[in-house]
Structures are given as C-alpha cells and as structure tokens.
Sequence to fold (352 residues):
Amino acid sequence: MTKARTNASASPAVGRNMIINGSMNISARSTSTAAQGADSSTNYPTVDRFKHFNSGTNAGRYTSSQTADGPNGISANCLKILCTTADTSIAAAERFDIFQLIEGQNVQRIGKGVVGAKQVTVSFYVKASGAFTFGLELFDNNNNRQITKLFDTTTAWNRIELTFPADVDDGSSPFADNNAAALQVGFWLHAGATYTGGTLNTAAWNNYTNANRAAGIDSIFSATNNAIYLTGLQVEVGPVATEFEQEQISTTLSKCQRYYYRSDPINVYVLTRYLAGDGRAHNSYGPFPTTMRAAPTMSSEGTWTAGAGWAGTPTYASSKTTHTQINSAVASITANHNSWANGGHIVATAEL
Fold:
C-alpha cells in the first residue's frame, strides 16, 4: 500500500484571516485626508474598514493616507499616519487609535469566553520614521474584556507576530453570533494618563480598566513629521503566525462593500415614468453590488445634472441590504417622459 505524502509546505487554509482589507488596497472614500484629530470623532477617513478614533482635547494633528510604499511581496499599499502638528502636553483623556471592528458571526471560530477557547495570533508589517513603542489591543465589545501587547518600530519594514492567550473566562462571555461588532483589533498610537496611568494588561484577558489599556506606549504626536506605516494585518486562530493571506482584489472589494459603497459617477439614470400631474415623486430601484451588513444610511455626493422631470440631489427611501429606492425631488412629470440625473455618486454606509 502506498501512503500519501504530507506536504509540509502547503499553504494554510484559505479564509483564515479574519481581517478585511489587511493589505490596505481598498480606499473608497479618499486616498489622503489631512487635518485629522481636531475634535473627538470616530471616522473612516481613508483605508476601508480602519476606523480612526480621536478623543479628548488633543492638540496633535495628522494626515491619514493610503500610500504606495508597502513591503515587497506583501502589498503595494499601506496605511500611513503622518504627524503634522505635535502635541507634547498630553491631557489625561486624550487618545488616538486605529482599529477594525469584526462582526460576531465572523469570529465564532475563536470560541472565546467558553470552554475550548482558542489562542489568537495577530501579525502585521510596520515601519516608522524612528524607534517607537506602540500597542496592539484586542477588545471584546460584547463583554468589555481586553488585552494589549506592545510592539517596537524601526525605519525598516518588520513583521510583528503577537500571540494572545485563549480567554475561557468563567464560560459565560462568548462573542455574540450576529452582525454587530464583537472583536475590536486596534493600534494605540497616542494616549493620556486615563489610558496609560496603570499597568499594561498584557498576560491574560481581563475586564477592562482604561488605565491598563495603553500603558507604556509612545506618542505619534511627540514631534512633527513622525510617521507610522501599517499593512499586511492578519488575525487568525492558533499560536502560529502563518504567511499573510493574499486574495483577489475583487474579493477584498466585495468584502469592503458590505460596509461602505460609493458608486462611480452615474452617467444616465433613467427613472420610472408616471403620467403628467399624478402628484407622485419619481423613483427608481438602485441595487448594491453586494449584500450589505445592514440596511444602509444613504447619502449623495458630487454634482448632479438633472434631466427632464428631475430636480436637485436625489433622496432615498426604503433602503434594504440589497438595494435602495432613489427618489426625484420633483412631485410630477410631463406625460410620456422619463426623468434622469447624472454626474453624482450614491453612497451607502452600513459600518459597525
């Protein structure tokens, strides 16, 4: 009998990376946004799925950008944070971190909070304008538990590999199995004493204490022109960091569009024809390229040019996870005419 040979060099299973857009290849909103950090805000200024959190009376300012300066063989792109205004007098409540929120139904494989919970390994590529120490935090949004590990930067690209212990807890704190935010994977880049004044919680998961979340980190705002570059982010089950999982750009784009979709400029959108003077708004069916996480919030961007029977920027109604209803600003139309508009963008947002 011939025994099949085990291929020890075979690639790990496809789909092991729980992060979306870890290659930083999709940046649908903008590739560069300046003057960030001016107020307490949470937004997605550039790279899809990476939320920027600014809190407190932070004097530091930064530019967030998708930059074509990634490590060879991993990704051409990275997320760059460039300090444009320093903040050397850090108030207690200040913080700046960048994180990705992952749906509960996408992290069930971890088995967190119950018997049989598994270790999690986070790996990523990083370089900076100098030597810094920052923090990588896993935060359980369902049960308010967390753990942070520090990492160091140099001016060259390095792969950081951090293995986090399993969190069995008392068996009563699993991730919810739904489409809401469960696991938060975040980079701490700046924080005041509210978050740094304690002892870093790094050995085991614990109910969170803010003072223990970012103790020991440096500040990206310590000097103008400080910069950090991030790409190749991977979160997987187990104690080993496997090779960064590459995927087709179309696959990454579709995953991102579950949370945010911005159409190309619409050249001609023909809308439903009604009889003259019927008093009804004119509407049309607008499908999304993929099923969204939840019924999205709709908006319009750009300059719209109106045709017969249409005026102004479109409005939206009855939005579902697969489509929206696009409405005209006009209540009626001349008989036997179609209405249309072109040039603008339809925006659908279903972020966590």
User: Anything to note?
Assistant: The chain has a mean pLDDT of 89. The chain has two helices and 22 strands. The radius of gyration is 23 Å. The helical segments are 193-196, 249-256.
